[in-house]
Design a protein that fits this description.
77% helix, mainly alpha
Length: 93
């Protein structure tokens, strides 16, 4: 039981680190500011790109036998990406 919990904690830490890295990378390239200052189309394009980047990370936590894993990860990623963008976390001064 302890080993399973330790493994879960390690997986969670790795997931959190990977997600943080993706967000920092987009922030460093000014993508959040561009989306905030850009047109609706530019924002939508960034949202789709960010969601795909996040989904590529999230898909690893779904069971490999689940054939809709990427679709589920993408849906979760869209929610996360929208929350990050709408919250203005990376665009506030």
């Amino acid at each position: 039981m302890v080993k399973a919990r330790d493994s879960l904690d390690a997986d969670y830490d790795a997931l959190r680190r990977d997600l943080g890295e993706v967000l920092r990378e987009h922030c460093a390239r000014g993508r959040f500011r561009q989306a905030a200052d850009g047109t609706d189309d530019e924002r939508a394009l960034f949202l789709a790109d960010l969601a795909r980047s996040i989904a590529d990370i999230l898909v690893v936590v779904y069971p490999t036998t689940y054939r809709h894993a990427y679709a589920a990860a993408l849906a979760d990623a869209r929610t996360l990406a929208s929350s990050v963008i709408d919250g203005g976390i990376f665009t506030s001064d």
